[in-house]
Design brief:
Order of helices and strands of chain B: EHEHEHEHHEHHEHEEEEHEEHEHEHH
Strand order of the largest sheet of chain B: 3-2-4-5-7-6-12
Number of strands of chain A: 20
Distance between the termini of chain A: 60 Å
Shape of chain B: globular
Largest interface: A-B, 12 and 8 residues
Helix content of chain A: 25-40%
CATH architecture of the largest domain in chain A: 2-Layer Sandwich
Number of domains of chain B: 2
Strand content of chain A: 15-25%
Shape of chain A: globular
Number of strands of chain B: 14
Helix content of chain B: 25-40%
CATH class of the largest domain in chain B: Alpha Beta
Largest sheet of chain A: 7 strands, mixed
Oligomer: heterodimer
Structural class of chain A: alpha+beta
CATH topology of the largest domain in chain B: Rossmann fold
CATH superfamily of the largest domain in chain A: Chloramphenicol acetyltransferase-like domain
Structural class of chain B: alpha/beta
CATH architecture of the largest domain in chain B: 3-Layer(aba) Sandwich
CATH class of the largest domain in chain A: Alpha Beta
Chain lengths: ~400, ~325
């Protein structure tokens, strides 16, 4: 007999929801076969049986939230009978199984797949009735330019997206204020998803106990924007301003190990590696995939990695390893035209950088009014770890990397 | 360079090769005393005599079979078919003998012969005499199949055919015999097989064609350039076998759209092979499906007005170009 219990997927996970059972009680299961779909706070997973047998009584029903280590069901060998069930929520009995015993019964493998679909196909965009048509060239160009096809309207026959639709795509245009169509108002309650619960819990844990303070600087990014354009021409690929900021922060953190640190009850932990989390918005909510050792990667490598992670985030395919372990976080709302904002620290980090839009502004240089590209950034600091002067020194270093971007390549 | 008609270019090529090589000879129906239905062989019997300019009975299978035997033993026969439609009678000799002898003999025996003659519509020869055969012969390994579109190519490619080691199906266009163009005088001027050429440079759309339809495509390209600012790149395939599509892929990489123009029927035609190859080799460059311009799927009518309706014309080509440019 082996037990199927709620697995612990990552440090932050305390409970998970049984989305559905693929097998009924009394049904035969084979090793490696998926038995249930589980919703954790970040991703959905298939639980796979690790032994052959018959599925016993189900201790958790579909939709039920079960603490980590809680019993979900047993797999019975030949001739075995199910024991009287302990309740799935009986955590006292099951907690001791969270450290590895569950692996005997269950192997978790990869993100959830919809078993009703024979082939793994991405679901069609919700707003369109049928498959979005696009020409091969349009797809190739969109891939190279990093333009999401879903954001385009096709001008060809039957709405086919063709090359000129991709060429005509300007993310800037999307930022023009545009009213979304009004929806009819109705009273309704939206059940909290596991992800929404986690966001609420973690951010309350952050603003409550962590004494935040904020430092804002206005940076000149004229050189950085021109360097970005040159790089895109050379590399023939999309590189975002944020990719430069990730590298600049990673390099600046090497000068300031006191910022690359975490508060602990007995000690402040300074980290030996620089792992930069990037806040990514998904339809379900916020998640922060991590670029590991960002200080050792080029802007191009960072850009490729961030886009791959963002894709995974949008498809709910991130694995715990993709979003855990950051030592510093960046949140960029520049693409939404936000000039400046403050962000809430993502524990156990001690700081988060809120990045506004880069835009041309009139500034005074040598007592003359000139037009320069400027960008405001605001760092939120955990005052228990970082004092005001320490935060200011970090920003001074960061300013040097961003305003003199050649420093990013030497 | 001298200006010559397509017809004279073909005659010059044969006579220059007969002067150069005593093993070259020609046989066919009414080519000697009558000097040819299309007057391609005018003056040849007088110059070379009946041993090298042979009037044959109306027996295409016999002509082709005789030529296979001559070629196997070292002669270089040219067989003129009064039209290529009549060569259907000789299909067994051409497909099962001429095309197979080298293979069956383990490479010991070549069959250096040329089967040439006019094909295609446009001169009111009705259903049995207006067909085109590039897709038919192009299907069979062992043959070379060419369809020159200009007097210079007609001369240069026929000389390559006569000098080569392969059985060559040399497809002339009856409607082009009167067409004039610059032809090099050099008796050793030849045009190799399997080398497509860019007949007109352009950046907006690739038009692939050969033979008479190449001339139609060029006329449309010039018109669209003048009237609508569309610059079509026109590619002349010249030969079906060997088929050189590299210039087509290069062009599509630039224009991202292509049409193929052929005179024959659409099902299983040359354009099907060409457009499928473009999709296999240049898929990611395409911004629109490859469009085919073809003849109507009917036996060719005799009546002039109906013949014009059944063959591709300027507006068919222009419409296809605009369709792949999403301007239709």
């Amino acid at each position: 007999m082996s037990e199927i219990i709620m697995p612990k997927m990552g440090d932050a996970m305390t409970e998970g929801k049984v989305v559905r059972w693929y097998k009924k009680s009394g049904e035969a299961v084979k090793k490696g076969e998926p038995v249930a779909e589980i919703e954790t706070d970040k991703v959905n997973l298939d639980l796979e049986a690790e032994s052959d047998g018959t599925l016993g009584e189900l201790a958790a029903q579909e939709g039920q939230v079960v603490p980590v280590g809680g019993l979900l069901a047993r797999i019975l060998g030949a001739g075995e009978k199910d024991e009287p069930q302990r309740r799935a929520t009986d955590q006292k009995d099951s907690v001791k199984k969270t450290t590895g015993e569950y692996a005997e019964a269950i192997e978790t493998k990869g993100p959830r797949r919809d078993r009703s679909q024979p082939i793994e196909a991405p679901p069609p965009p919700a707003t369109r009735g049928s498959r979005q048509r696009s020409s091969p060239l349009a797809r190739k160009m969109a891939r190279e330019l990093g333009v999401p096809l879903e954001s385009l309207q096709g001008s060809g026959p039957q709405g086919r997206i063709v090359a000129k639709d991709v060429q005509g795509f300007r993310p800037v245009e999307d930022r023009r204020p545009r009213l979304s169509p009004p929806s009819s108002l109705e009273s309704k309650s939206i059940p909290l998803s596991a992800m929404r619960r986690t966001i609420a819990k973690r951010l309350s844990e952050s603003t409550g106990p962590i004494p935040h303070f904020y430092l804002t600087v206005d940076l000149d990014v004229t050189s950085l924007l021109s360097m970005r354009q040159q790089l895109m021409d050379i590399e023939e690929t999309k590189i975002s301003v944020n990719d430069f900021i990730v590298r600049a922060c990673a390099l600046a953190l090497r000068h300031h190990p006191n910022v690359n640190a975490s508060w602990g009850d007995d000690a402040i932990a300074q980290h030996g590696d620089v792992h930069v989390g990037i806040a990514v918005s998904t339809p379900e909510g916020l998640i922060t995939p991590v670029v590991r050792n960002a200080d050792q990667k080029s802007v191009r490598e960072i850009g490729d990695e961030v886009r791959a992670l963002a894709d995974k985030a949008k498809n709910r395919k991130l694995m715990p390893n993709d979003y855990q372990g950051s030592t510093f976080t960046i949140s960029n709302l520049g693409a939404w035209g936000i000039e400046e904002f403050t962000a809430i620290i993502n524990p156990p980090n001690s700081a988060i950088l809120a990045v506004g839009a880069a835009e041309a502004r009139a500034v005074v240089v040598d007592r003359q009014v000139v037009i320069r590209d400027r960008m405001k950034i605001t760092m939120s600091c955990d005052h228990r770890v970082i004092d005001g002067a320490a935060g200011a020194e970090f920003l001074r270093t960061l300013r040097q990397y961003i305003e003199q971007p050649l420093r990013l390549v030497v | 360079m001298a200006e010559k008609s397509y017809r004279d270019a073909i005659r010059d090529a044969m006579m220059e090769e007969m002067d150069r090589d005593p093993n070259v000879l020609i046989m066919g129906e009414d080519i000697g005393v009558y000097e040819g239905t299309f007057r391609i062989t005018a003056g040849m019997l007088k110059k070379y005599g009946p041993k090298r300019v042979i009037d044959t009975p109306i027996a295409e299978a016999g002509m082709a079979g005789t030529a296979v035997g001559m070629a196997m033993l070292g002669l270089r026969p040219i067989v003129e078919m009064m039209t290529m439609n009549f060569a259907i009678v000789a299909a067994d000799q051409i497909l099962n003998h001429a095309a197979k002898v080298r293979y069956f003999s383990g490479g010991q025996v070549d069959v250096p012969m040329v089967i040439r003659g006019p094909q295609g519509a446009g001169v009111q020869l009705s259903a049995q005499h207006s067909q085109t055969f590039e897709a038919f012969y192009g299907h069979f390994p062992g043959l070379a199949v060419v369809a020159p579109a200009t007097p210079a190519d007609a001369k240069g490619m026929l000389k390559t055919a006569i000098r080569g080691k392969d059985p060559v199906i040399f497809l002339e266009s009856a409607a082009l015999y009167g067409m004039k163009g610059e032809v090099p005088d050099d008796p050793d001027f030849t045009v190799p097989f399997g080398k497509s050429r860019v007949a007109r440079e352009g950046s907006d759309v690739t038009v692939v064609s050969y033979g008479r339809m190449l001339q139609l495509s060029l006329i449309v390209a010039d018109k669209l350039s003048k009237d609508e600012g569309i610059e079509a790149e026109v590619i002349d395939l010249r030969s079906m076998r060997p088929l050189d599509l590299d210039p087509v892929y290069e062009s599509v990489a630039k224009t991202h759209r292509a049409i193929v123009v052929q005179e024959q029927w659409k099902p299983f035609g040359a354009a099907a092979e060409i457009s499928a190859s473009i999709m296999e080799n240049a898929f990611d460059d395409l911004d629109a499906p490859v469009e085919r311009v073809t003849g109507e799927d009917v036996p060719m009518p005799y009546a002039r007005n109906l013949e014009l309706l059944a063959t591709p014309n300027e507006s068919h080509v222009a419409e296809a170009i605009k369709k792949v440019m999403y301007r239709a």
